[in-house]
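Priority: medium. Attachment 1 of 2:
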């Protein structure tokens, strides 16, 4: 698979976008989704005739060069205005007339307006902007420019199954563990409808990845959604949240959890007026959460109007959670130099990106700083491909919908959560970054568990999460071991069959280093029978078979069993056999550094022959044995890079690492 490479994108990758799309309204009669009945969450939505915008004329588009080789694109005959709050409409019309223009778009509730003016050059437009700025009723004014879509250009792939090296975003956020937990939780919960707005370049249903999700398309409610962008930026973003769980391509991070309770509210836009109008429309259509994978930075011309307007939008829509991408300009966000990300409101989450397969390290391109709230994987994220399947794409554009997905899950579990409460669960229960950043990184398991505990959830969920009643979420490995209990079952000729469960006594294993005995060790003991199997070799732990052959002088590669249930304790070592490790799954990482595997759930089997010694004086006897196990193995803190690399590159939930060997 080819790999995505970084490119600065202020629509550099989207210059062929159909600029005439994005500001047309029609009467809503059908949303183009699979569920068109009266229970459609947006069925009662009627567009406000006072909220609208005008498309740009493609023949009037110009570019302005910016420092660093960037460009910004905008229509030379349009500008946008943010008036002082509660300005009379008559004052807006008088201003428009003084500029020789007319009002062609507006959001009156926030005093935002789009004007068409008689400019034919950038200099003429700048002069009209300066004239408007001098009006005492004007807060700020600027170009109707396109934002940065915070991505890098995607690599192409026709793969239908996500390759192991592309699974890092799921492993790093404990998504796999959360899915296993939630599959057990689901039947004990009542999930509620949640609406996620995706205001972007649109959504392309022809990919086949949105057949099972209801989409309310704001641009054209009588027809199917579309995404005119050549790179399908909006489709990729929406897919991270809501792609079908159909064993092909990618699974949506939210749809995998909440299923048919997830509804998308989609707007297809490309310039500032369109983004502002369609975010307002998405909120009016009932969006609980709006994903905003775009932005403007301080160096953009007339940045002030973008910051002022987006802050006013988000204050006006205080019941909506806005999840915003931090951007990819290597900028320290301080709350005033980027928009909409970084604006410090309780209903805004600003999302940075972590490096590929390095969950505790920020991406080299990601913006950061005190105004960032959380980081999520952002390099080579699997997203919906042009013809189905998946491609990998990079940038905070794709970190952001992961956070929006977790927000949607939390909101579906408890719909009364305010935006500030959702933000708290996401940001307070992330894991720390290695550089000591004031924000952490996204983790699905902890946020979900903590919400359920705070809700006062009953058994069996509480017994899985917090059996001791400590009021804190359990480590993911421990929770999974309670949901999917480990066990060991085996039989020994002449001694019957035995089952060891965690409630009976010690059950578990350990993975050590090649230089320390044993390489692997497992034990099951229920106070009646005790079985211990050890392997020791000059190679690290691996899946596969180990020979169990008793060394006369010591137990190196073998098994020992004792039967305390008999009147005279019988015990004995194996004299031949095999131990096979079949599968492994990383359930938890080192709680001190958050990086190396710490608890690995292993399944396997064993068989062989014991030489049993009898303390009642009988001569030793031979007894065949066989069994299987599934149990957590604790990985030694000194296991070493070779062991950790193997586990990461082999076990489910691993974060692939380059090998350190020659």
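Attachment 2 of 2:
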């Amino acid at each position: 698979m080819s790999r995505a490479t970084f490119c600065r994108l202020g629509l550099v990758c989207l210059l062929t976008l159909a600029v005439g799309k994005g500001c047309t309204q029609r009467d809503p009669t059908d949303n183009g989704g699979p569920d068109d009945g009266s229970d459609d969450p947006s069925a009662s939505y009627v567009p406000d005739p006072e909220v609208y915008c005008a498309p740009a004329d493609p023949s009037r588009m110009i570019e302005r060069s910016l420092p660093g080789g960037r460009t910004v694109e905008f229509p030379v005959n349009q500008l946008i205005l943010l008036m002082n709050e509660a300005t009379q409409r008559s004052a807006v019309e008088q201003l428009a007339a003084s500029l020789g223009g007319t009002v062609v778009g507006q959001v009156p509730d926030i005093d935002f307006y789009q004007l068409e003016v008689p400019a034919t050059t950038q200099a003429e437009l700048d002069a009209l902007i300066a004239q408007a700025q001098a009006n005492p009723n004007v807060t700020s004014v600027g170009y109707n420019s396109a934002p940065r879509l915070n991505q890098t250009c995607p690599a192409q792939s026709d793969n239908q199954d996500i390759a192991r090296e592309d699974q890092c975003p799921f492993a790093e956020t404990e998504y796999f563990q959360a899915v296993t937990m939630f599959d057990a939780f689901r039947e004990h919960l009542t999930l509620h409808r949640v609406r996620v707005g995706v205001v972007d370049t649109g959504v392309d249903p022809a990919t086949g990845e949105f057949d099972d999700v209801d989409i309310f398309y704001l641009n054209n409610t009588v027809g199917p959604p579309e995404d005119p962008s050549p790179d399908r930026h909006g489709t990729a973003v929406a897919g991270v949240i809501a792609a079908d769980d159909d064993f092909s391509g990618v699974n949506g991070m939210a749809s995998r959890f909440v299923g048919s309770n997830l509804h998308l509210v989609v707007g297809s836009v490309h310039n500032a007026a369109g983004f502002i109008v369609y975010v307002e429309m998405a909120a009016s259509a009932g969006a609980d959460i709006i994903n905003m994978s775009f932005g403007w930075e301080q160096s953009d011309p007339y940045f002030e109007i973008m910051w002022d307007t987006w802050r006013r939008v988000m204050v006006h829509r205080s019941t909506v959670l806005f999840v915003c991408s931090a951007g990819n300009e290597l900028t320290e966000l301080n709350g005033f130099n980027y928009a909409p990300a970084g604006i410090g409101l309780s209903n805004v989450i600003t999302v940075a990106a972590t490096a590929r397969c390095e969950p505790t390290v920020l991406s080299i391109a990601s913006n950061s700083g005190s105004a960032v709230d959380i980081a999520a994987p952002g390099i080579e994220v699997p997203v919906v491909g042009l013809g189905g399947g998946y491609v990998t794409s990079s940038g905070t554009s794709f970190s952001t919908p992961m956070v929006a997905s977790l927000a949607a899950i939390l909101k579906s579990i408890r719909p009364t959560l305010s935006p500030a409460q959702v933000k708290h669960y996401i940001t307070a229960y992330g894991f720390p970054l290695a550089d000591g950043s004031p924000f952490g990184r996204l983790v699905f398991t902890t946020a979900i568990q903590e919400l359920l505990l705070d809700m006062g959830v009953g058994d069996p969920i509480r017994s899985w999460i917090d059996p001791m009643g400590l009021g804190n979420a359990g480590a993911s490995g421990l929770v999974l071991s309670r949901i999917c209990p480990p066990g060991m079952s085996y039989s020994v000729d002449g001694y019957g069959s035995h089952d060891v469960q965690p409630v009976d006594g010690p059950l578990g294993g350990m993975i050590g280093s090649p230089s320390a005995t044993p390489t692997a060790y497992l034990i099951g003991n229920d106070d009646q029978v005790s079985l211990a199997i050890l392997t020791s070799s000059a190679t690290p732990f691996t899946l596969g078979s180990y020979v169990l052959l008793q060394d006369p002088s010591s137990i190196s590669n073998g098994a020992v069993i004792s039967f305390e249930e008999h009147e005279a304790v019988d015990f004995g070592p194996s004299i031949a056999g095999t131990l096979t490790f079949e599968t492994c799954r990383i359930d938890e990482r080192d709680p001190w550094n958050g990086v190396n595997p710490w608890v690995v759930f292993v399944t396997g089997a064993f068989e062989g022959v014991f030489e049993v010694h009898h303390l009642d004086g009988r001569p030793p006897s031979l007894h065949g044995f066989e069994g299987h196990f599934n149990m957590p193995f604790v990985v030694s803190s000194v296991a070493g890079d070779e062991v950790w690399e193997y586990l990461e590159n082999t076990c489910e939930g691993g974060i692939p690492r380059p090998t350190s060997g020659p």
